[in-house]
Amino acid sequence: MYLEPDKYYHIYNHANGFENVFRCKENHLFFLNKYRFHLLPFFDTYAYCLMPNHFHFLVRVKSREEMLESMEKILSTPTLPQTLPQTLPKFETSVKLQEVKLQEVKLEVKDLPDFFRLEKIAPSSRIKTYSKFLRKYIQLSNISQTDHTASDLFIGQLISRQLGDLFSSYTQAFNKQFNRMGGIFIKNFERKEVDSSTYLLNLVTYINNNPVYHGFANKAEEWPYSSYNDVLNNRSDIVECTTVIEWFNDLQNFIDCHKKTPDIDFGYSFE
User: Fold this and answer.
1) Would residue 266 count as lying in a domain?
2) Would you state the pLDDT for residue 265?
3) Are 72 and 87 in contact (CB under 8 A)?
């Protein structure tokens, strides 16, 4: 199942075996930094928790328009060569967009450049890479007007690749740090669609209270690697804190609801 635009999901994964995948403060911070790097252009994030041998995220996949806007911002950052335009052409008014015919579009995730690493590409090849990227996303924008199934599939594949890059990048750094080999996460991450407001609120409190549930803390605020304190302080570059507080009506109710961990059966055990 691919992740679809404008839907909420619980994303989680577990260590591939019995060892811990987060062993020190630096591991947690590195993983969250990679999460920002690879996934914030695609996700709105409402809750997360990194436990010693697993993690949880509650996200909304952004709409096509929001993703394209995020990509515009990334591609027009000062880290790109000055010869590139500072702002990208608006997709809906582009002449090229009007000329693209649906039957001519062949979107393949593997053909896309990794636009998050454009600043690492040699200056001589940046323009060519940039043009290829823009052309593909103009086509994607056109498809989204006529064939949502095709564009949703493409977006789902792209997000899966970004998640895979996150896990791969973290694994490489972890293996180098601890002089080990092989994968550290279960190969296929789990995802479950969140289809009700009750489930959504329960999931926020469950994720933030995961350290309490597993006996690593007495209160949610004692665990430094979750979104609880982000929301409590209403300050985060990952979590949509204001939105979460609005879901609970106010901050005090958010705090009160976290005094008890909801009993949710996810069909797995992360003991």
Assistant:
1) no
2) 60
3) yes
Domain assignment present for residue 231? The answer is yes
Q: Are residues 35 and 96 in the same domain?
A: no
Sequence-ordered list of residues with C-beta below 8 angstroms from that of 74, at least 6 positions apart, any chain: 41, 115, 116
Indicate the SS3 state at residue 266: coil
Give helix 148-178 / helix 25-39 axis angle, nearest 10°: 160
Residue 22 has pLDDT above 60, yes or no: yes
DSSP state, residue 86: S
144 close to 151: Cβ distance less than 8 angstroms: yes
CATH number for the domain harbouring residue 200:
3.30.70.1290
Helix (H/G/I), strand (E/B), else coil: 214: coil
Specify the pTM.
Answer: 0.77
Q: Is 183 in the same domain as 139? A: no
Residue 67, in any domain of the structure: no
Instruction: At 180, list the tokens.
Output: 């080990």
110 or 50: which leads in pLDDT: 50
Is there a single domain that holds both residue 196 and residue 132? no
Task: Please list, in sequence order, all residues whose beta carbon lies within 8 angstroms of the beta carbon of residue 172, skipping any fewer than 6 positions away.
Answer: none
User: Is 39 within the bounds of a domain?
Assistant: yes
Give the count of domains, the chain.
2
Residues 6+ apart with CB under 8 A from 101: none
Side by side, which strands form the sheet with 8-14?
A: 43-51, 54-61, 8-14, 190-194
- Sequence-distant (6+) residues with CB within 8 A of 104 are none
For residue 268, pLDDT beyond 50: no
Q: Which domain holds residue 128?
A: 82-152
